[in-house]
Structure formats: structure tokens, C-alpha cells
Amino acid sequence: MNRLRTLCLAPAALLLLALFAAPMAILAVYTLLTRGVYGGVAQPFTFENWLRLFDPLYLGILARSFSVAAAATALCLVLGFPLALFISRAGPRKHLYLALVMLPFWTSLLVRTYAWMFLLRDTGLINTSLLALGLIRQPLPLLYNWWAVLLGLVYGYLPFMVLPLYSTLERLDPALSEAAADLGARPFETLRRVVIPLAAPGMRAGVLLVFIPCLGAYLTPDLLGGGKTILIGTLVQNQFTNARDWPFGAALSMGLMAIVLVLLWLQVRRQGQSLL
Amino acid sequence: MNRLLSFSAVLLYAFLHLPLLVLAAFSFNQGRLTVWQGFSLRWYEAAFHDGQLIEAALNSLVIAFAATALATAIGTLCAYGLWKHGSRTFTLSLSLSLVTPEIVMGISLLALFQWAFRFLGAHLGLHTVILAHVSFCVAFVVIVVLARLRTFDAALEEAALDLGATHFAAFYRVTLPNLVPGILSAALLAFTISFDDYVITSLVAGVDSETLPMVLYAIARRGANPVVNAISTIIVFGLGALILVSERLRKP
After folding, report:
1. Using the beta-carbon criterion (under 8 Å), do B34 and A125 form an inter-chain contact?
2. Which residues of A are less than 8 Å from B230 in CB distance?
3. In the CATH hierarchy, which fold is given to the domain comprising B42-250?
4. Which of A118, A196, B81, B99 is most buried as measured by Cβ atoms within 10 A of its Cβ?
């Protein structure tokens, strides 16, 4: 029996070791090396790259990434909660409603981001319509700014918030809300004092699932921010392409991974289980 | 309160779906601008006559098929092993691979490939993209198949064993047939994730292995292009259909 299980797990173990653990280990070693003359890495060993992370310039970018990710997460929570509550109370239709949330999510992040470029750009649908209606004379600068990035992130990751919220709300015993109502609580009071506290585990999972990808996002800030809003993801990518500073890029990645690990560890400790 | 909830749900569904529907509608626009000038299929025609796009789409299909096949096989076996006996290390590693930012996963794989190629004398190409895609699709397959296994009655397998089946026969002839919908659902999901990936792919692709998302990304960054609207529409409806089938199969 144990042999069968080992055989079953072996390919995945090999894959995780070769294509996840090994690359991370290589990256970890690179953080201690010096930038090569033509890119790549070279000796001698140094802690320089780690120290550079604390340069105010990069701390500023980190702070900006944190604030964008936090704002997107907060918005997703505010928007996702009513949606999850609505779906959990939809009776036999709830599977359909949930599928309608997940459908655009699984389809294509690139296309969904492009759709917002199509709507927001200077010659985009919103500006053209407003111009045609005579409401504005100049196109509004809707694209390539902080707000567009925030919108793109909320649009992209809202389903990640709805899914865990829905699964906790769905398991909630309706008798609890009924009891609160019987005892004289108004609907909003029941929501505030019964439903929301009980949905806390789903909220924590959702916050984590949205915050982490938003923090390291590359595609959305690049397309909707137009390179004006530099976040960690863009900074990492730059070190490996334009700047050709692999050791520093590696240090940035490891720093980002450290943050992700801490967040994941907090979640595991709190819930006693990981995401799977 | 219930009316307020329904009202906000309607608004949120509009927020989620309208941008894509509007994009799809304008892909049939006669004109180049965002003013409706009549129905036309000219942008679809242009897309299908663009050699670069066709080649990229073929690359994407090859990569997605290969990565899906490998990831589904490896992920299904892994899910079965974990279902038999859970492993904290395994679940944690898979969770970690799921939350690793794409950009970090992409450059770490690039670093690995560059390092390995010094000894192997190989280059970046379709094979490196396929390997990268397998590595990020496996965790999704494990999740979907494991969820299916949790609704599967372990007593069925035990009955097969009691009746004299070997462990392998019990798995192959009893458990596996019951898992088929879950496995198909996982494969469809892996396919869409692989087909759509840009960030990791663009880092580990070689000069001859440009994928459809890479070409679209490059065009989109340059500015408006109705051809992108047309291809986007095909992608959204094509992958959307796969996801619907996948969701349908996942229901026990």
C-alpha cells in the first residue's frame, strides 16, 4: 500500500523539487552574488543586494505596492461580501450565480485587463461617449494612473474574495440568523453581530488570496499603469530585462517571497490548515 | 435588506461582465474607432490572415495540450496519494507554489533554465515553456481532483480489496473511473490557465516560441487595435466554454 502511495506522489515530488524548490534555491544563491559585466551573475559573494533593499527608493516602491494591494483588498472585501451573501442566499440558483462570478475569472486575465484599456483609454469607449454627449471637451486621463491600476486589480481578483466568503457563508446555519431575528435583532444588526463575526475565517482567507497576488502583480500595473506606477512586480521584472541586475532582482524576489511566506504562515497558524 | 442585496449583486455582475461584453460587441464594429459604424467581420478576417498571430496561436495550443496532459497525470496521481494519506509538507509546498507571485516564479525558472543550459547546451523554447506551465498547473489539478476524491466513498475501494483486487487494480478499476469527471474538469482548468498565461511564459519563452498572449500583450501595449478585440473575443468565449464544461463536471 505504502509503495503505491509513494509511486503516486513521486512525480509530483520530483516536479516540485526540480521546478519549484531548485529554482528558488538558485535565486537565493544569486542574491549573494555580484552583477556580471554582461548581465548574469559573478563572484565575489556579497550582502550588498540585501542591503540595497533598504534603500529609501525601493522602500518607497514597497510601500506603494503595499498601499495599492491593501486598497484593492479592502475594496474587494467591501464589494465581495454582499455578493457572496447574495449567492449564499440564492437557494437552488447559487451554483449558477457562483459560476457567473468565476467564469470571467478563469477565462483570461490578459483579455480582462485589455477590456479595461479599451474602455478607459483617451480614444476609449468612455471618453468617446462623454465627448459625443458634450459632457467633456477634452478626454479624461482615465488610463495609466494609480486609479486604473486599482480598478484593474479589484476587477481581476474580486472572485478570489467571493469564493472563500461564499463557502463560509454557505455553511452558516440559517437557524442562527433566525434566532437573532426572533430575539429582536433587525436585519442589519443580525448581519453585524452574527453573520460577519462568523464569516471571519472566510474573510481572512479571502484577504490573503487577494492581497498576495495584488502585492506581486505585474501584468495589471504594467498595462493599466503604463509604466508610470512602478510596483514591486515591475521592479523585479526590470532587473531581469532592462537593468540586467540579476543579483538585485533575485534579492527583490526573495524579499517578496519572505513577505508572502509570513502572510501564509500567519494564515496556517490561525486556521490550522493551509489553502488546499 | 434583501432588495439592497439583490440590487448590489446586479451592479456587481454588471461590473464583472459588461467590460467583456462591450469588448465583444465592438469586435464586430466596421470602423477602427470606438464609435459604432455597423456590423462587420473584417477584424476577424484580419486576425485569421495574420501569419504571426496564427503561428502564436498554434504555439499556445501545442503548449497548452502538452502541459495539460502532463499536469493532469502528475496532479491526479498526487491527489490520490494525498487522499490515501495526507502529507503536511506536500500540501504546504503546493499551497506555496499557488501563492508565489507569477513574476517570481517566472524569473526563478528562467534562472534555473539558464543555469542548467550551461551544462546541457540547450536553449529556451517550447519545451521550457511547457515545463514551466506544468509546474504551475499541477497545484490546480490536485485541488480539483482532491475535492472530487473527498466526495468518493472509500468503502468502494475497500470492498474491491476485500474481494481480492490488488491495490493497483482497485485504483485502476474502481477509483479512477469514478474520478473521470473530476479529472476532466481539472484538465480543462489547467488548459485555460496554461493558454492564458503571459507573465511566466514571456520570461521562459525563446525567440521561436512566442505565444498568443505574448503577441496580444505586445500589440495592446502599443495602443488600440481592433484585431486584438476580435482575438480577445474568441479567447473569452472559447476558454469560457471550457470553464463552463469544467464547472459542470465538477458537480458531484
Report:
1. yes
2. none
3. MetI-like fold (1.10.3720)
4. A118
Q: Write out chain B residues lying below 8 Å of A99, CB-based.
A: 244, 247
B182 contacts B145 by C-beta, under 8 angstroms = yes
Q: What is the tens place of the pLDDT at every residue in A178-235?
A: 888 788 778 788 878 888 888 888 898 899 989 999 998 999 998 898 877 788 998 9
Q: Is B85 on the interface with A (CB under 8 A)?
A: yes
More confident residue, B11 or B50: B11
From residue B233, alpha-carbon distances to A114, B26, B44, B118, B201 in Å are 11, 10, 10, 41, 21
Among A3, A8, A32, the strongest candidate for a mutation testing the B interface, having the largest count of B CBs within 10 A, is A8
Of A15, A106, A250, the CB nearest to B134: A15
pLDDT digits (tens, 9 = 90+) for A152-161: 999 999 998 9
Domains of chain A: 69-229 (1.10.3720.10)
Q: Which residue ranges make up each domain of chain B?
A: 42-250
Eight-class DSSP state of A45:
P
Sequence-ordered strand ranges (E) for chain B: none
Nearest residue on chain A to B13, alpha-carbon basis: A101
Residue B252 one-letter amino acid: P
A99, B171: Cβ pair inside 8 Å? no
What are the pLDDT digits (tens) for B90-109?
888 888 888 899 999 999 99
- Interhelix angle B226-250/B126-150, nearest 10 degrees: 30
Yes or no: say if A116 and A152 are a contact pair by the CB < 8 Å rule: yes
Q: Using alpha carbons, list the distances in angstroms from residue B167 to A39, B78, B123, B162, B176.
A: 53, 16, 42, 10, 12
Residue with cell 500583450: B217
Task: With cut-offs at 50, 70 and 90, classify the pLDDT of residue A104.
Answer: confident
